[in-house]
Amino acid sequence: MQKIYDFTNENVGAFKSLFDFSNARVLTVLGSGDQYFTSLLNGAKNIEVFDYNIVTWYYFLLKFISIKYLSYEDFYQMFITDNLDNLKIYNKILPYLPEDCIWFFNQLSLLKRKFSSIKTNNTLFLSSLKNNNLKIPYLNKEKYYELQDILKHIDIPVFYNCNLLDLKNLISNEFDILILSNIYHYLDFNVSDYHEFLNKFNIPNILALYTWGMNSKEQKEFYQNGFAITKIPSVISGYDYIVSLNKR
Q1: Percentage of the chain exceeding pLDDT 90
Q2: Which of 82, 83, 209, 211 has the highest CB neighbour number within 10 Å of its CB?
Q3: What is the pTM of this model?
Q4: Side-chain half-sphere of 107: how many Cα atoms within 13 Å?
């Protein structure tokens, strides 16, 4: 079982300054689900998600239903204070969870594994969560209830259980924005190859890379291949970099 991040370590709150999400159709890596939830808060009208790690999907379903039905205090208690291991709160949302999500967490229980066992160690980031209301918008109480109201009126999104290399052959809808997080770091591509690969997607605005460090040589390679680079405040400290590709 591949472990997951329960919250993103990206400043997803900065995305709205780079892309116009208003009524946008968005395709995003799933991960913690925070790119999805932030896109909704930014005004996206249709979002589909993909990830090669199936555990991200079961965790996303748990988070989606939790935000939809739990109070902010119960959500915070379960996902942050109790590290997912609060069965009393879990039982509150159990009647609303999809069957495949229930099956997955039942399997953990049968194996006598805590729900928190699906998570990777995120201690450094978790210690700073209280200061990240703008960087992960729905951790702000007002934004949480705004997101909850949105979730009450939409269905669970389409999910593609695949890697990026196979994604183009699976999607059939048109999109305005593609969000790829740090996937580039796991691909056997140089910058030129990556640019050529991304051009195969008929998507005009692409967040091609979110990275926590970039030297001058790397920046030069991306600039020379038609990418833009934006420096943004980091979730923890200092600055991160967003590499984007705008085809219009």
Answers
A1: 86
A2: 209
A3: 0.95
A4: 10
Predicted local distance difference test score (pLDDT) of residue 146: 98
CA–CA separation, 201 and 215 (whole Å): 28
Between CA 2 and CA 171 the distance in angstroms is 24
d(CA 226, CA 98): 43
* Dihedral sign, Cα of residue 173, residue 166, residue 117, residue 122: negative
Supply the mean pLDDT for the chain: 93
3-state SS, the chain, equals CCCECCCCCCCHHHHHHCCCCCCCEEEEECCCCHHHHHHHHCCCCEEEEECCCHHHHHHHHHHHHHHHHCCHHHHHHHHHHCCCCCHHHHHHHHHHCCHHHHHHHHHHHHCCCCHHHHECCCHHHHCCHHHCCCCCHHHCHHHHHHHHHHHCCCCCCCEECCCHHHHCCCCCCCCCEEECCCHHHHCCCCHHHHHHHHCCCCCCEEEEEEECCCCHHHHHHHHHCCCEEEEEECCCCCEEEEEEEECC
Contact residues for 165 (Cβ-Cβ < 8 A; gap 6+): 187
Which residue from 43, 114, 117, 33 is spatially nearest to 68, judged by alpha carbons? 33
- pLDDT tens per residue across span 218-247: 999 999 999 999 999 987 778 999 999 998
Quickly count: other Cβ atoms within 10 Å of residue 24's Cβ: 18
